[in-house]
Amino acid sequence: MKGPDVLDPMKQLEDALVLCKFGRFHLRLLLVCLVSNMATTVATTTASYVVTNAECQLGIGNVEKGLFISTSFFGQLLTTPLAGIASDAFGRRPFLIFGNLFMAIFCLLQGLSQSFWMLMLMKLGEGMASGFSINLVGTMLAECTNKNVRDRIMVAYVTFFPMGQIIVVLFAWAILPRELDVVLWKGYFEIHSWQLFLFTCTIWGLLASIQFYCLPESPKYTLAQDKPEEALEIIKKIFSENTGSDKDTFPIKSLTGMRETDTVVKASVRKQLTMVVFNIKYLFRKPLVGILCLVCLMNTMVTAFFSTIRMWNPQMLTIIENYESTHVETTRFCVMIDEYYVQKNSQVMTSNITNIVEEACVSVISGSSTYKNILLISAITTLSIGSCVFLVKYFTQKQLISVSLTLCVFCSVALHFIRYSVMIAATLGFTTSLSIAAFSFLNNITIRVFPTSIRSSAVAVNFTFCRLSSVVGNIVFPLLIQYRCIVPFTTLTVGIGVAAFLSFFLPDPSKDNKDTGDR
């Protein structure tokens, strides 16, 4: 048994990370996280651009659009729980390397697809691959950053998602509007602009995989595995890279071994998995089980909102752009959306009566206005979330969640009274940024509250509910919006309102872990 003068090893590690400061290693880690988030953004958002441009070519109807857009989230739903358990047993780094690599492979295979179902199957594979890495990027970043700057770094990390969206939009704008058709075998193997777009997107997963291979394992995970010497060696390398000093000059010479109750047995794969599963039971004990349920419930509502709105932005803005180009005056947001679906349903009914199937498909192509408005949304989202880096220094994450969700409700309601595409895009940008900010703060609370030995499992459970809500939201949304635009938007807004109310019951890790840092 340890004497009272022996420090807790995780407390020692937190002190060691403070001595490492913030420097070149963390900038390199942030760059890797940005590239990895680009790969994840590709996995989740390229479907929105593909369905808009390949609607007639692949015979995609409204139901197929919803299925395809939700496929990547369904893939993440399948693998996220497994990734959480496995990464607590075998580390963060292997899953970050192979998750990003397989995202690139499946993105390439999507570009080679010649049918909708082949395309959908490859999108499912890409989603499954992203499920192995998406929830680990933030965990890895948090576990390598000292407690003095952790909150600000984690908020800054969230800006990578809209930044990734900006890059994807620029790629889409440069490639999709062009008629780039390569016929290698007519009717069997043809390459079009949307496939070339997917080819260019494979680079992000490949680069992220290579970069994570060049990074060390998380020192906190290594220490949780009862490997204090290895954890200290990682810390020394971080110190040396950040300060330029020799690693042997690091003032801390040893880390105390883990307490017996925290030790993960260094044994076979079977025993490691058994120990992780054994540790998961702590997720379902008070007070952690209550926190987990609250966070999962809130994130389910928040994710359903921003994921659905974000994925359908290209389609809705394209409809609005075409409405403005064919009408002298614009009208309210939902009126323009409703008119499009009324006309589309009318065309389908007419084609069924006259047996002219070809006339049922009217592809609405995105123009410059749509891409500019999507860039506006992404820019507003990036700047809004970026401002939270400074706000988190003066307000707790719990307070910021409550304010963000409340403002999101007001913006969502205001959307129904706006007429012009630029104003609609700006409002969508604010609603998206506010909901994503709340989502990021909720994830940060999850990472901060749960101990290292079960952190990835807790994040995985949380992300599982998030992906489930994304799947349901993106399937149900196109079914409801083609009848009345106001119905799905009202449903999503009510969910955000409920989440805003529940935010008052969240814990505050900034106060609870102020002295010791995360466990």
Automatic annotation (TrEMBL):
Residues 29-511 form the Major facilitator superfamily (MFS) profile domain. Gene3D superfamilies: MFS general substrate transporter like domains (1.20.1250.20). The keyword Membrane applies. InterPro entries: MFS_dom, MFS_sugar_transport-like, MFS_trans_sf, Sugar_transporter_CS. The keyword Transport applies. It is a multi-pass membrane protein. It holds the Pfam family Sugar_tr. It is found in: Membrane. Keywords: Membrane, Transmembrane, Transmembrane helix, Transport. The chain crosses the membrane at residues 29-51, 66-83, 95-112, 154-176, 196-215, 288-309, 374-392, 399-418, 424-447, 459-480, 486-506. Belongs to the major facilitator superfamily. This is Major facilitator superfamily (MFS) profile domain-containing protein. It comes from Plutella xylostella.
